[in-house]
Design goal:
19 helices; 75% helix; Amino acid/polyamine transporter I; mainly alpha; 436 residues
């Protein structure tokens, strides 16, 4: 039977939602694979949030398809980090937050916890702004009122009380499917130059020659890899662990890796579709100054020549803004239980996170006007990017520790790749700080 190890706790408000997925012993490979599909999808929603939209639209409208390879490489980097996370959880039976509490002193633990919480709030701010903007574009609701409406998604989380983890995953699958379908239809309507899209997949650092192109590339990287997703993934994979023997853990890692890769490939396709859509609809038609979601929505109709494209754009944005609502709550719960050994009811955690996101959203719009949404979306991605090294470093240290990971510890090649990625992201952040 698939079950949680004794050292693990079920994620997502353990006392309120069942956290295990069981499969009869001796199940066929397809049935096992189906049972392991889900955690990767919960993680992948963070990679298609409205913050990603802002950077992808800016890149596509200004440079066409030229920065598509940056989206691809950033997504591959995300896959590597998420695979390390699931290996850590399944090999040790503990999530990254709990391991940090066990391995570091009090001051370091508190610092890592605070940086991770800041990342969750920044991500939730992007969800608030994205969902509010979608309500404004679809229904004409004033942005301040729309921001207030987003507070009611807490009721969705409360409605999950007593339901299983699979129900949560099903909702996320529906939202991701909605986003993918909307963009697929929009691309058919617009008809990009597909040979040019294919050529743009080849890495070409020369396309980053201008400081502005490099700035947007750093923004894409910061928007793609989510710090709190590293803590999240290392915990929720424990809902599928098979026994504690080496063979069972190896099988669990292989199946969970397939889940993560497939899910993040879907997120990659969606992000690439946003950039390609912006390149075909705006850059190719001379509108290379589109840098925010609202302008993109306004121009889509005249460019395409029909109202369906902007409608689908708004629906996809609303689904994107709502999809990370669930994962932010789960990640916050994992952080508090892991770093602080503190358990609070799910609804309290959700209210706290959303309140901390609503305050800057309301103040920003009230003070700077509706035009502040785009700036705040970019700012939220900067915050995420700055927090990322503080989650990557303990992950690399833990997964490279043979005393902790045993036979599942990272080898020299994986260690070197992870370290190179850490240095690139840290260097990009330092450059970003000097450029601001």
């Amino acid at each position: 039977m698939f079950s949680l190890p004794k050292t693990a706790t079920a994620p997502f408000c353990p006392s309120e939602v069942s956290g295990t997925v069981t499969v009869p012993a001796g199940a066929s490979f397809p049935r096992k694979l189906a049972a392991f599909m889900g955690p990767g999808l919960l993680v992948s929603v963070g990679y298609v949030d409205p913050g990603n939209w802002a950077t992808d639209i800016a890149a596509g409208s200004k440079y066409g398809y030229d920065l598509l390879w940056v989206v691809v490489l950033s997504s591959l980097a995300a896959m590597l980090l998420q695979i390390l996370c699931l290996r850590l959880g399944l090999a040790t039976g503990r999530d990254l937050a709990r391991l940090c509490r066990d391995r570091y002193g009090r001051r370091v633990r508190l610092f890592l916890w605070i940086t991770a919480e800041l990342a969750i709030v920044a991500c939730d701010l992007a969800e608030v702004l994205g969902a509010a903007l979608a309500l404004n574009l679809l229904f004409g609701l004033p942005l301040l009122w729309a921001v207030g409406v987003t507070a009611f998604d807490t009721m969705i989380v409360l409605g999950l009380k007593g339901h299983g983890f699979r129900q949560l995953e099903a909702i996320v699958v529906g939202l991701m499917g909605t986003i993918a379908l909307c963009f697929a239809i929009q691309l058919v309507l617009i008809g990009p130059d597909w040979p040019a899209v294919a050529r743009a997949l080849a890495p070409d650092p020369g396309r980053l020659a201008s400081p502005d192109a490099l700035y947007i590339a750093v923004g894409i990287l910061g928007a793609t890899v989510m710090p709190h997703n590293l803590y999240l993934h290392s915990s929720i994979v424990l809902t599928r662990l098979v026994g504690r023997d080496e063979g069972s853990r190896r099988e669990a890692i292989a199946l969970s890796t397939a889940d993560a890769v497939a899910s993040l490939l879907l997120a990659l396709v969606i992000n690439a579709a946003i950039l390609v859509l912006a390149g075909a609809a705006f850059h190719a038609t001379g509108h290379d100054g589109v840098e925010d979601i609202e302008t993109a929505h306004r121009l889509l109709g005249p460019v395409v020549g029909m109202t369906l494209a902007p409608l689908l754009f708004g629906i996809a944005l609303l689904a994107s803004g709502q999809s990370s609502t669930f994962t932010g709550t789960i990640a916050g719960q994992i952080l508090m239980e892991g770093f602080l050994d503190l358990k609070i009811p799910c609804w309290q955690r959700r209210l706290a996170t959303r309140f901390l996101a609503l305050v800057p959203a309301v103040l920003g719009i009230a003070w700077l006007g509706d035009g502040a949404v785009g700036k705040m979306l970019v700012a939220s991605q900067v915050v995420l990017s700055l927090q990322l090294p503080f989650a990557i470093w303990p992950l690399l240290r833990s997964t490279g520790d043979a005393g902790l990971m045993g036979r599942f510890a990272s080898g020299p090649a994986l260690k070197a790749t992870g370290l190179a990625l850490f240095l690139v992201i840290t260097g990009a952040n330092l450059w970003l700080l000097t450029a601001l």
